[in-house]
Design a protein that fits this description.
Largest sheet: 5 strands, mixed
Shape: elongated
Number of helices: 11
Strand content: 15-25%
Structural class: alpha/beta
Radius of gyration: 23 Å
Oligomer: single chain
Order of helices and strands: HEHHEHEHEEEHHEHEHEEHH
C-alpha cells in the first residue's frame, strides 16, 4: 500500500517548483517543455469479462483514471472462456493479468500455471437463497435438500460445501447439487425441483428482488466478514522481472475497488 500515500505526482511537484521559481530564480530545468510532458505510460493487457460484476471496478479504473495515475495504459482483453484457459492466457503473455474468484482459480493453479496472486479485491459475491416459506434457515439445513448451481465446480457450490464440511457434514453425500443454466434458477425453484439457490451477483441480487427470496447465508458472514472471494492474478514473469509495474497494476485495482465500494450507485 506504499503507493497510496504518494498523492503528489511528479508533474504536480514540477508545476509547484516552477511557480516558486518565478519568484526566486530557479534553474530552467524546472520550467519550459518539461512541464508539458508526462512520462510515457506503460501498456499492459488485462483480461476482462464485461458481464462479470466482480470485474466492474476495471471499468471504473479506466473511467476514473486510476491506471493512468500509476503510469499505466491498460488495454482490456475481452475474455469469457473457462478458468484454465484464462490462466493459460495470463501465463503465456496473451494478457498480463486478470480478476477471478479464488475458489474457481485455486484448483487450476495447482496445475502449475505461471500466475501470481497479488491481492484480494473484494468480498460478498456469493448468496444462498430460499423462498420465504422454506424451512432452510442455515447452511446445515441443506441436508437432504436439492440446491441449484451453475456447475459442479462452481465457486459458490465450493464455498457452501466448505461451510457444511466445517460442521462435519459431507457436502457430496448430504446435499443434492443440481446443475441448471443460470437463467433457469428461478423456474427450478418455482417448480420445486430445488429448495435453494447457490448463486453469485448480479444474478443472485436480481433473483432475490424478483422472487422475494430470503438470503440464508453469504460470504460476508462470520469469519468471512473481512475476507475476499475474488483475486487479482498477474503473469509470474511480470511480477519477477518488473515488480514496479506489478505493484502499480495492483494498487490501481485496489484504488478502483475502494472507489466502487464508496460509490455503489
Amino acid at each position: 500500500m506504499a503507493l497510496h500515500s504518494l498523492s503528489l505526482s511528479r508533474r504536480t511537484v514540477l508545476r509547484g517548483l516552477a511557480t516558486l521559481g518565478a519568484g526566486i530564480g530557479l534553474s530552467p530545468v524546472f520550467t519550459g517543455s518539461v512541464l508539458a510532458e508526462d512520462p510515457p505510460l506503460k501498456t499492459i493487457k488485462l483480461a476482462w469479462g464485461q458481464t462479470a460484476v466482480c470485474q466492474s471496478p476495471i471499468s471504473v479504473a479506466l473511467k476514473q483514471g486510476f491506471f493512468k495515475k500509476y503510469g499505466l495504459n491498460v488495454e482490456p482483453v475481452n475474455f469469457s472462456g473457462p478458468t484454465d484457459a484464462l490462466l493459460q492466457a495470463i501465463a503465456t503473455g496473451q494478457a498480463d493479468g486478470g480478476i477471478g474468484m479464488a475458489l474457481r482459480w485455486l484448483k487450476p493453479l495447482e496445475q502449475g500455471f505461471d500466475v501470481d496472486l497479488t491481492v484480494g479485491t473484494h468480498g460478498g459475491c456469493m448468496r444462498l437463497l430460499t423462498p420465504e416459506n422454506s424451512n432452510i434457515r442455515s447452511v446445515k439445513d441443506l441436508v437432504g435438500k436439492s440446491v441449484a448451481v451453475t456447475d459442479q465446480a462452481s465457486p459458490i457450490r465450493n464455498f457452501f460445501a466448505i461451510q457444511l464440511a466445517k460442521q462435519g457434514i459431507d457436502p457430496d453425500k448430504a446435499v443434492n447439487w443440481l446443475q441448471y443454466p443460470a437463467d433457469l434458477f428461478g423456474e427450478a425453484l418455482r417448480k420445486g425441483e430445488v429448495q435453494a439457490l447457490a448463486t453469485d451477483d448480479p444474478q443472485g441480487w436480481l433473483l432475490k428482488q424478483q422472487h422475494g427470496l430470503v438470503e440464508v447465508d453469504n460470504n460476508l458472514n462470520g469469519e468471512y466478514a473481512h475476507l475476499t472471494c475474488c483475486v487479482l492474478g498477474l503473469r509470474g514473469s511480470l511480477v519477477r522481472d518488473d515488480p514496479k509495474t506489478a505493484q502499480a497494476i495492483t494498487q490501481a485495482i485496489v484504488d478502483a475497488q475502494q472507489w466502487t465500494a464508496d460509490h455503489p450507485d
